[in-house]
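Q: what sequence does this backbone want?
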C-alpha cells in the first residue's frame, strides 16, 4: 500500500513537472497583451512605452503604466526600419530604450523540439517509474544479504556476572574468555592458542543468552547478537552471505564477541535425512566453519553459541579449533534458585514476611526464566489486588499459577464433586504422610487449577539428583492414594483419578524398561528411543525385544502398580479416621498449607510405615 501510494505520488509529480515546463514556453507568453505593429507605433507616438526588448522577431514591450505587452516585427527588416514603415515619430522613438537580445539558442531549439519530444519524454518517465519499482524490489533482495545483527553497546544496559545468579562453574570457565578479551597480549605472547568458539548449553531459560551478554559486559567489548533462525531464511545463498557479512563486521570491531543464539537451527547434523536435506542450512553451516577456520591466531574475535540441543549438533562444529569449549548451564538448585529470586526481586517491594528460601523450596525444576517470570507474576498479582507490596502469599499463588494454570474458584462444584475431590486429595496426602521416607506435603487443595480438580503438592526438602527405587515405590503408592481412597469411601470411582493412573503407569514402565528396577527382568533396558530430527523430540520407540519379553514387561509393570495400590489401600483402611479428618477439613477450608496439614496429622501420632521393596 505504501509503495503504491509512493508510485502514485511520483506519477503526479512527473505530470505536474511537464505541465510546468509547458507553461514556461506557451502560457507564459500568452498572458501579456498582444499588440499589432500599428498599435505599437500609436503607443510609441503617445509616449506610453518605456522599453522594447528585441529577441529575434519577438518584441517584449514594457509599458510606462506598469504593464507588459508583446508583439512581432517583420523578420526581414530591423526594428526601427519596421517602425518607420509604420509611421513612428523619430522623436518619440528616441525616448524608448531599445535592447537587442540574441535569441537564446536553447530556448529556440526547445520551442521547436519540445512538441516533438513530448511523447518521448512521457514514455521515458513511464519507463523510469517502472524501472524504479523493479529496482526497489531488487534492492530488497540484495539487502537480505546484510546480516541482521544487533550490536549491544555496553554503556546503557551493561550486564555483568553480578546479574547472573549461581552457575559458578560456568562463570569460572568463562572468566578465561573474559581475561583474554581484556588482555589478549598476555596470551598471545606466551604462544597460547585462544579458544575460538564457546558453546553454551543448557535447558531453555537457564540463562544462556544472559550469560553470553554478561561475558561481553565483564570484558567490556562489543557484543554482536544474531539468532540461528535469522540465518535460515529461505533464500538461496543468502545464509552464507550473511555469515560472511557478520564475520567481516566482527573483525573490524575486534576484540569482540559474536553470539549465535540457538545455533541448532543451523548447526544441525548435516544430511540427517528427515527434515529435508536443507541445502540452505548446510551452506550456512559450511560458511561458519570456513570463517572460523580462516581466523588468524591473533584474531580477537570469540564466537559464542547457545543451544539446548547439543545432541543434534553437527560434530564438525565441535571439532578442536571450532566450538571446542563447552560450558554447561544446569537448572538451578535450591540455593541458586534463592539467589535468582533475589536478583529478580530487585526493584520490587516485598513484604517483611517474604521468605525466598521457602519459594525456592517449592520450585524445583524451575529455570531462571521461570523464576524471573514468577516474581513478575507475583508483582502483577499484588498490584491487581491493590496491595502496595508483594506478599509471600502472592508468590506462592503465582508458583501454583505457573505450575498448574490460574485458580478457578468460579468453577461450580456440586456438593458431591467437592466431597469426592476432598477424599481423593486426602488419600494422596495421607499416604505421603504415612510412608517412611516420603517427601513432605507442602500443600493440599481442592480448588481446581488449570485442568486439575485438586492437588497435593509433595516436594523434596533438598535437591535430589538421584532417586532410589524405594522413593519411586513411595511415589507410586502416593499416586494411587486418591484412587484407593475413592474406592474405599464411595465404593465407586470417578474420572478424577485418570491422570494419576496415567502418571503411575508411565512411572512403573520406566522403572522396568529404563531404570532396570524390576528384580525379575534385571538390569536391562528395553526399547531404543529414536529421535526424529525435524520434530526434535522422542516420537518413536524402537522395539528391540521380543513379543514374549513384551509380555513379561507388561506383567512387571502391572505388578508394580498392583503392589502400590495394595499398599495405599492398606494404609487408608487402617487409618480411615485420619482420612476422614483431612477430607472434612478440606471441604471446610479448601486449602491446607504445610503447617496446617502437619499440625492436623500430628494429633494422630502416626507411625511411619516403611515401604516394602519387592
Ligand atoms: P536461555 O537463553 O538459556 O533460554 P535466557 O538467558 O534468555 O535463557 O534467560 C531468560 C531470563 O531468565 C533472563 O533474562 C533472566 O532474567 C532470567 N535468568 C535465567 N537464568 C538466570 C540466572 N542464573 N540469574 C538471573 N537471572 C536468570
Ligand atoms: Mg536464549
Ligand atoms: Zn489425584
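A:
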Amino acid at each position: 500500500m505504501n509503495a503504491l501510494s509512493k508510485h502514485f505520488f511520483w506519477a503526479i509529480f512527473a505530470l505536474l513537472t511537464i505541465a510546468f515546463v509547458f507553461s514556461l514556453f506557451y502560457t507564459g507568453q500568452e498572458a501579456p497583451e498582444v499588440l499589432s505593429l500599428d498599435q505599437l507605433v500609436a503607443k510609441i507616438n503617445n509616449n506610453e512605452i518605456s522599453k522594447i526588448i528585441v529577441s529575434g522577431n519577438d518584441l517584449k514591450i514594457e509599458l510606462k503604466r506598469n504593464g507588459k505587452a508583446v508583439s512581432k516585427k517583420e523578420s526581414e527588416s530591423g526594428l526601427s526600419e519596421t517602425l518607420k514603415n509604420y509611421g513612428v515619430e523619430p522623436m518619440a522613438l528616441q525616448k524608448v530604450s531599445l535592447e537587442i537580445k540574441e535569441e537564446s539558442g536553447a530556448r529556440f531549439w526547445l520551442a521547436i523540439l519540445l512538441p516533438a519530444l513530448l511523447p518521448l519524454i512521457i514514455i521515458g518517465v513511464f519507463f523510469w517509474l517502472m524501472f524504479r519499482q523493479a529496482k526497489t524490489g531488487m534492492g530488497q533482495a540484495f539487502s537480505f544479504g546484510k546480516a541482521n545483527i544487533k550490536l549491544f553497546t555496553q554503556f546503557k544496559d551493561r550486564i555483568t556476572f553480578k546479574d547472573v545468579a549461581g552457575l559458578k562453574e560456568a562463570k569460572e570457565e568463562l572468566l578465561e574468555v573474559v581475561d583474554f578479551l581484556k588482555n589478549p597480549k598476555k596470551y598471545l605472547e606466551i604462544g597460547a592458542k585462544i579458544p575460538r568458539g564457546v558453546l553454551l548449553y543448557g535447558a531453555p531459560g537457564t540463562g544462556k543468552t544472559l550469560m553470553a551478554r554478561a561475558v561481553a559486559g565483564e570484558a567490556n567489548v562489543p557484543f554482536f547478537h544474531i539468532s540461528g533462525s535469522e540465518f535460515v531464511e529461505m533464500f538461496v545463498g543468502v545464509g552464507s552471505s550473511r555469515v560472511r557479512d557478520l564475520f567481516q563486521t566482527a573483525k573490524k570491531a575486534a576484540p569482540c564477541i559474536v553470539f549465535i543464539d540457538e545455533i541448532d537451527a543451523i548447526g544441525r547434523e548435516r544430511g540427517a535425512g528427515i527434515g529435508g536435506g536443507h541445502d540452505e542450512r548446510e551452506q550456512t553451516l559450511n560458511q561458519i566453519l570456513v570463517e572460523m577456520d580462516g581466523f588468524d591466531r591473533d584474531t580477537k574475535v570469540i564466537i559464542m553459541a547457545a543451544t539446548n540441543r547439543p545432541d543434534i549438533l553437527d560434530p564438525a562444529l565441535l571439532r578442536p579449533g571450532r566450538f571446542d569449549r563447552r560450558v554447561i548451564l544446569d537448572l538451578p538448585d535450591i540455593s541458586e534458585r534463592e539467589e535468582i529470586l533475589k536478583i529478580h526481586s530487585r526493584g520490587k517491594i516485598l513484604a517483611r514476611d517474604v521468605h525466598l528460601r521457602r519459594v525456592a523450596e517449592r520450585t524445583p525444576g524451575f529455570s531462571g526464566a521461570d523464576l524471573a517470570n514468577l516474581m513478575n507474576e507475583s508483582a502483577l498479582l499484588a498490584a491487581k489486588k491493590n496491595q502496595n507490596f508483594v506478599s509471600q502469599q502472592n508468590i506462592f499463588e503465582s508458583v501454583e499459577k505457573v505450575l498448574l494454570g490460574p485458580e478457578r474458584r468460579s468453577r461450580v462444584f456440586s456438593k458431591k464433586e467437592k466431597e469426592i475431590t476432598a477424599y481423593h486429595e486426602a488419600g494422596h496426602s495421607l499416604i505421603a504422610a504415612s510412608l517412611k521416607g516420603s517427601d513432605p506435603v507442602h500443600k493440599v487443595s481442592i480448588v481446581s487449577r488449570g485442568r486439575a480438580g485438586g492437588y497435593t503438592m509433595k516436594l523434596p526438602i533438598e535437591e535430589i539428583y538421584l532417586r532410589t527405587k524405594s522413593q519411586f515405590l513411595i511415589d507410586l503408592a502416593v499416586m494411587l492414594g486418591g484412587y484407593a481412597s475413592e474406592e474405599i469411601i464411595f465404593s465407586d470411582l470417578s474420572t478424577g483419578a485418570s491422570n494419576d493412573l496415567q502418571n503411575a503407569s508411565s512411572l512403573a514402565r520406566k522403572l522396568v524398561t529404563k531404570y532396570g528396577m524390576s528384580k525379575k527382568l534385571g538390569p536391562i533396558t528395553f526399547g531404543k528411543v529414536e529421535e526424529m530430527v525435524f520434530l526434535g523430540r522422542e516420537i518413536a520407540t524402537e522395539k528391540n525385544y521380543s513379543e514374549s519379553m513384551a509380555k513379561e514387561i507388561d506383567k512387571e509393570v502391572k505388578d508394580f502398580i498392583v503392589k502400590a495400590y495394595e499398599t495405599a489401600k492398606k494404609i487408608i483402611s487402617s487409618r480411615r479416621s485420619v482420612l476422614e479428618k483431612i477430607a472434612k477439613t478440606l471441604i471446610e477450608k479448601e486449602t491446607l498449607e504445610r503447617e496446617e496439614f502437619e499440625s492436623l496429622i500430628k494429633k494422630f501420632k502416626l507411625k511411619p510405615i516403611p515401604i516394602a521393596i519387592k
